[in-house]
Design brief:
With about 90 residues, this protein is mainly α. It has 3 helices and no strands. Helix 1 runs antiparallel to helix 2. The longest helix is centred in the middle third of the chain and has 27 residues. The N and C termini lie far apart (about 50 Å). The relative contact order is 0.11.
């Protein structure tokens, strides 16, 4: 296995952990448990960012610049959905 595959696997695992920790934070029934999940989530997000940054610097994780029109469409869609949910 080369470094790129290893880092890609690490990124996938950390992303999965972030999802689990986010759900744990949301579903926590007590402040202490919520804070424990939230703290772990913040740590995992930092690790995810570090892995992503290293991969990006090496050219292993490239992104494309979004077109302003598509950004505006997504904002409008989200805003409309949000307004409908809170009616």
């Amino acid at each position: 296995m080369d470094d790129r595959v290893i880092m890609d696997n690490l990124l996938s695992v950390v992303k999965g952990n972030c999802g689990l920790l986010m759900h744990g934070t949301i579903e926590s029934s007590t402040p202490n448990v919520r804070e424990a999940f939230k703290s772990s989530l913040n740590d995992a997000l930092q690790i995810q960012n570090e892995i992503y940054s290293q991969m990006s610097q090496r050219g292993w994780y490239t992104t494309q610049q979004a077109e302003q029109q598509k950004i505006n469409q997504a904002k409008q869609k989200f805003s409309t959905q949000q307004q409908q949910q809170f009616k």
